[in-house]
Write a structure and sequence with these properties.
A 3-stranded antiparallel β-sheet has the order 2-1-3. The protein has one domain. The protein is globular, with a radius of gyration of 23 Å. It contains 9 helices and 3 strands, in the order αββαβααααααα. The protein has helices spanning 8-15, 35-41, 48-70, 79-98, 106-122, 130-137, 151-183, 192-236, 243-283; strands at 20-23, 29-31, 46-47.
Length: 286
């Protein structure tokens, strides 16, 4: 923490500040010391904490699943193997219920998104001061540990999904078919001249609908997790108000954490489900 006795405003700003690396106004490269310096670094600045935690959780996900797959036993399955198999079956059943095309990529992609986002969301259940305080002892001024509260992370995943949607739309329907899908609906006409006149209108409507997919996908995840993190931070402020408010804050934090578990699970499930639905739409021929 920058100040030993921060004000509530300083406390909130500190916990919402990413560890940002970029180019300073004087041309040198380094870590931003505050929101103003981070803002001056512009678009090319990198959030090191988001990259670290998202990569660490992704690697942990791969190592655990790989270890279970290598040591899988039919005769004596362990508790972890049963849990992993349940997760895989859960995702597979949801994919089969939403996706009717033939694409071997969809199920693994859905499993990766669900588990990875779930792990990132679950970092929001770690007490807000623990890891930032540990980082401060190590000389790191800022540390946000929930990657999904950073719009850079959620937009990156959503843009990856959007790229796959466009790719498979062109691959399955062909360039002409995809262009026709964007320009020949929702308004149709038998008259050729009228059909040509309606193309810009259809393109505008369908273009907005297409571009809204990655925006809504990313902002929904970011907004829910950011709001949850903010509530945890506000509850943590109660501990500085005396023992009575401290007890109330502890009870409130426990209650919010129990409710937030549902949000953590639901948002990972929604992101996975919408990804499968968007890919299903990309594989449909009109």
């Amino acid at each position: 923490m920058a100040s030993p006795n921060p004000t509530p405003s300083e406390y909130i700003k500190h916990h919402l500040q990413n560890l940002t690396f970029g180019r300073h106004a004087d041309g040198s490269w380094g870590i931003a010391h505050g929101a103003d310096e981070a803002r001056e670094m512009g678009f090319m600045a990198v959030h090191l904490d988001t990259l670290f935690w998202s990569a660490l959780l992704g690697i942990a996900f791969l190592l655990v699943f790989q270890r279970v797959a290598v040591r899988a036993s039919v005769e004596t399955p362990g508790g972890l193997q049963n849990f992993i198999e349940w997760v895989v079956d859960f995702v597979n059943d949801n994919v089969r219920g939403s996706f009717t095309g033939k694409n071997d990529l969809v199920a693994p992609l859905a499993l990766t998104l669900f588990v990875w986002i779930l792990l990132m969301n679950m970092m929001d259940l770690v007490p807000v001061d623990w890891l930032p305080h540990l980082a401060t002892l190590m000389g790191i001024e800022y540390m946000k540990v929930v990657p999904t509260t950073d719009p850079n992370a959620t937009f990156a995943m959503a843009l990856g999904v959007f790229g796959l949607v466009v790719f498979y739309s062109i691959k399955v329907k062909g360039p002409v078919g995809f262009a026709a899908e964007l320009t020949m609906q929702p308004f149709e006409a038998k008259n050729v001249a009228l059909k040509v006149m309606l193309m810009p209108v259809n393109l505008f409507i369908e273009g907005i609908s297409l571009l809204a997919k990655p925006v809504s996908l990313s902002l929904r995840l970011f907004g829910n997790l950011f709001a949850g993190e903010m509530i945890f931070i506000l509850i943590a402020l109660l501990y500085s108000g005396g023992w009575a408010l401290g007890i109330f804050g502890g009870a409130l934090q426990w209650a919010w954490a129990m409710f937030h578990v549902l949000i953590v699970l639901l948002q990972a499930f929604i992101f996975m489900t919408l990804t499968v639905v968007y890919l299903e739409m990309a594989h449909q021929k009109h």
